[in-house]
């Protein structure tokens, strides 16, 4: 059985993340989405529990996808899940440079955990959690950037205004 781990903070999960999840789920027997605790450098928009709940809801139609949170080293989480493969998405050249360095270190330190890169669908190349968080600071919703359940949560929490509220 092939098991792959797709890690990230998913704060919040975007349509780009979901595209990658769907594509990876079609390539492997089991995909584990690993939601990591945000580093101390970032102020999260959503709690770890909220991010896990939103991702589970967004992935409910994908039977071979599970969502779990983790803290600590990614390679330890990957090993604990019985995997030796990490999947990462690439939107631009800058992503590749950073992700390649991390992948090489992970491979050496872990003794062989591999990282596979999937290029983003071009229609999602400008979609990022950072952009969603930045617009949310000004209560601007980006419905084309996040799954419907995430947008609903953002509106319910008063993070962004719905289109109806802006009229």
Word description of this protein:
The protein is globular, with a radius of gyration of 16 Å. The protein has 167 residues and is α/β, with parallel strands linked by helices. α1 links the parallel β1 (3-8) and β2 (30-36). The strands form two sheets. Strands 1-2-3 form a three-stranded parallel beta sheet, sandwiched between helices. 41% of the residues lie in helices and 19% in strands. The chain starts with a strand and ends with a helix. The chain has helices at residues 15-25, 48-58, 74-80, 93-110, 129-136, 148-156, 163-166; strands spanning 3-8, 30-36, 65-70, 85-90, 114-119.
Describe the SSE topology.
Layout lengths: L2 E6 L6 H11 L4 E7 L11 H11 L6 E6 L3 H7 L4 E6 L2 H18 L3 E6 L9 H8 L11 H9 L6 H4 L1
Parallel strand pairs: 1-2, 2-3, 4-5
Q: Write out the strand line-up for the largest beta sheet, numbering strands in chain order.
A: 1-2-3
Calculate the terminal CA-CA distance, rounded to whole Å: 52 Å
Strand elements, count:
5
User: What is the C-alpha radius of gyration, as a whole number of Å?
Assistant: 16 Å
**Percent range for β-strand residues:** 15-25%
- The residue-averaged pLDDT reads 93
Care to give the gist of this entry?
This protein is 41% helix and 19% strand. It contains 7 helices and 5 strands; from the N terminus they run E-H-E-H-E-H-E-H-E-H-H-H.
Short descriptors:
single chain, 167 residues, alpha/beta, 3-stranded parallel β-sheet, two-stranded parallel ribbon, 7 helices, 5 strands, globular
